[in-house]
Each structure stands twice: as C-alpha cells, then as structure tokens.
C-alpha cells in the first residue's frame, strides 16, 4: 500500500531509491546521529560553559572600556531592532517565529533579572527588540518604506555612540558586524560604478576600470589591507585616519572588484532589445541604466551579492594584522588567559555556533528576498 505522505515519498525517492542509495543513506544517517548524540552529550554533561559566561564582554566588544558598556549595549539594541525590521521586510509577518521569539526573550530576561545575570537580561531585550522589529515591518508597510532611512540613522547613531572610546578600542562580535555592514554597503555602489565603467564606450574609462578589477582580483585581501594600512600614513602623515578606517578602506576597495564582476554578469543577462526599446522612446542612457538595466541585473546577482556579504563577515578576522580585535581574535584572547586556557573546545564551539547562526540568518533573508523579487513584490 502506497503512502500518501509527502515526507515519506521524498525519503523513498531521494534516500532509498536503489540498494546502493539505501546502503549509503543508512551509513551516513547512522554516522550523523552518532556524531550529534556525542556532541549533545558533551555539551550537556562534560563542557564547562562558564568560560563563555565569564568572558562574554570580551566576546561581544573586545577591549571596550568597562565603564562605557552601556554604549555597546545600546548599539546592540539598535542593531537588533534594525535587523528585525530588515527580516520583516523580506520575510513578511512570520508570527509563528516572531511571537515565540518575543515571549522566550521576555521569559529569559525575567529569569536573568531574578538571577542577576545582567548580560542575559540585556541580551534577551535585544532578541525581543528584533522580534518587535520583525513584526512591525511585516505588518505595516510604512515601516518597510522607511527602513533604509532607519538603517542610515541607526548606523550614524551607533558610530556616534561608540566613538568616545576611540575606534582602536572597538572589538568583538559588535565590531565584526558593524565592519561587515559598512564594507558591504560601501562596496556595492563602487562595484556598480566599476561594472558600468568596464562596459563604457569610452576607452579610457573601460581600460582603467578593467585594470583595477583585474589587479584587485589577483591580489590577496590581507596584502591589500596591509598595504593601505602602511601607505596611508606615508601619504598623509598628519591625518592617516584610525586603523579601523584604513582596514575598512582596504576591504571596500577589494570587494568592490568582486561586486563589479557580479554586477557585470547581471548586466549582460539583460536582453539588448529592452535597451534599444528604451532608447527608441527617447530615454537618456543614464535613465535606461538606472530604471531598466540595473534593477534587472540586481535581481540576477542577488545570491552572489549575499555571498559577498558572507565573505566579508568571514574574512574580518584578517584585521588582526593591523591590530584589531574581531570576534575570532577575542576568542583567542580568552584562551590566552591561564584560567580559561584549557577550555579550547568550549570557546571554539561557541564561536562556531555564532558564525553559523549569523550565516544562516543572512542566507535565510537572502532566499526570502529572492522570492519576493521573483514574484514582483520586492
């Protein structure tokens, strides 16, 4: 008797279609279950997670002054609200996720207040703000309409909040997230300009843009960051800028070359007939590129642009070469402490879980955005 369950049909078709598939599936599933059970058993009964709780400040903000900790927490709250708004704008009002998120965050915050775990209490508030932003953007169109303005105002506010301590004291996960946002946003317009320049009818602009893209794509990122970090003080000895700013410049210049190639592939996918039809209607070349060509190209290259954001986030640890303390470097600082030096597994598993959660959230948002854009609602 055939089963009408879609799940059983999928399992039979994809995992147990043939004898070879069945054997391989049994072996792989058994191995995965054994690995998962071992990891869960270690995490619950053997691991000592006190090292994470005791050093949560280092993980989150690095060496930021302790007496100014209200500033990073305020920035984390702003980022949580803005991130929730962004997810609500692309994913819609997912009440099945956001309402339990708010409820659990409030419950965890209440228990944290009772147990006097300030970090847990504030972290729960950030999660609740993310859920509120998600619901608000998913339910009300005006919130989505002004989300870009909210992000600009939020980034400026975060920069002003963190500035009094000096950019050299920024660190941890907060610095990694901010750096990723800034590098991603700044590299896109530069990459779009380079992509159009490479297709320009003017030979000088085409040659310059092509040479820039090829040179940047042939160099390792760590070399670009290190060279800019060294060269800027030589060119402007009195105003070289902070180390983090020079690192941001290196990341922006480097990843803009990759964005340019992604966008150029999207531009080539736009049918030539649409451009000719727009020109026949009397539209200027700039208007054609802005209103017809570029929107279609962005739809095509959206997965690549999201992958570029993930690449930036995963390569932020390279900033160690100029003395910055990102999230991974903060974990290494924790392990240098003799009191927590024997908790290597706990520290790296915690960082792995954070990186996986961040990447999964970005990927989920990108898929939802692709779906909205494909349906004409994006």
Shape assignment: globular
The number of strands is 1
Strand content: under 5%
Radius of gyration: 24 Å
Structural class, please? mainly alpha
Regions with little confidence, pLDDT below 50 for 5+ residues: 111-117
Helix percentage: over 70%
Q: Main β-sheet, in a few words? A: none
State the domain count: 3
**Remind me, CATH topology of the largest domain?**
MetI-like fold
* Average of the residue pLDDT scores: 81
Report the CATH superfamily of the largest domain: MetI-like
Helix and strand run: HHHHHHHHHHHHHHHEHH
**CATH architecture field of the largest domain:** Orthogonal Bundle
CA-to-CA gap between the ends?
45 Å
The CATH class of the largest domain, by name, is: Mainly Alpha
Count of separate DSSP helical elements: 17
Care to describe what's here?
The protein is mostly helical and 378 residues long. It has 3 domains: 6-46; 65-169, no CATH class; 181-272 and 300-378, Orthogonal Bundle (MetI-like fold), CATH 1.10.3720. It is built from 17 helices and 1 strand. The longest helix is centred in the C-terminal third of the chain and has 31 residues, at 285-315. The protein is globular. Belongs to the binding-protein-dependent transport system permease family. HisMQ subfamily. Residues 173-366 form the ABC transmembrane type-1 domain. Keywords: Cell membrane, Membrane, Transmembrane, Transmembrane helix, Transport.
């Amino acid at each position: 008797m055939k089963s009408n369950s879609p799940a059983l049909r999928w399992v039979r078709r994809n995992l147990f279609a043939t004898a070879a598939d069945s054997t391989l599936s049994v072996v792989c599933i058994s191995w995965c279950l054994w690995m998962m059970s071992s990891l869960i058993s270690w995490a619950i009964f053997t691991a000592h997670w006190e090292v994470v709780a005791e050093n949560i400040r280092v993980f989150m903000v690095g060496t930021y002054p302790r007496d100014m900790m209200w500033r990073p927490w305020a920035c984390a709250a702003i980022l949580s609200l803005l991130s929730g708004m962004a997810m609500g704008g692309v994913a819609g009002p997912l009440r099945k996720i956001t309402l339990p998120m708010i409820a659990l965050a409030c419950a965890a915050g209440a228990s944290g207040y009772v147990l006097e775990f300030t970090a847990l209490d504030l972290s729960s508030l950030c999660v609740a703000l993310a859920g509120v932003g998600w619901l608000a953007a998913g339910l009300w169109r005006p919130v989505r309409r002004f989300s870009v303005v909210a992000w600009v105002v939020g980034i400026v506010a975060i920069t002003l909040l963190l500035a009094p301590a000096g950019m050299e004291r920024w660190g941890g996960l907060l610095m990694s997230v901010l750096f990723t946002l800034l590098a991603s946003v700044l590299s896109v317009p530069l990459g779009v300009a380079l992509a159009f320049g490479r297709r320009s009818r003017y030979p000088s602009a085409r040659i310059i843009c092509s040479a820039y893209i090829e040179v940047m794509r042939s160099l390792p990122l760590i070399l670009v960051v290190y060279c800019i970090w060294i060269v800027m003080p030589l060119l402007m000895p009195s105003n070289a800028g902070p180390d983090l700013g020079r690192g941001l410049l290196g990341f922006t210049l480097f990843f803009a070359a990759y964005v340019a190639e992604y966008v150029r592939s999207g531009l080539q996918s736009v049918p030539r007939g649409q451009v000719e039809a727009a020109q026949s209607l009397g539209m200027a070349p700039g208007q054609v590129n802005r209103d017809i060509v570029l929107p279609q190209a962005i739809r095509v290259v959206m997965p690549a642009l999201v992958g570029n954001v993930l690449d930036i986030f995963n390569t932020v640890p390279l900033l160690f070469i100029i003395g910055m303390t990102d999230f991974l470097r903060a974990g290494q600082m924790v392990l240098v402490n003799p009191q927590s030096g024997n908790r290597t597994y706990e520290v790296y598993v915690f960082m792995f879980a954070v990186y996986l959660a961040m990447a999964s959230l970005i990927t989920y948002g990108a898929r939802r955005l692709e779906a909205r854009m494909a349906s004409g609602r994006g």
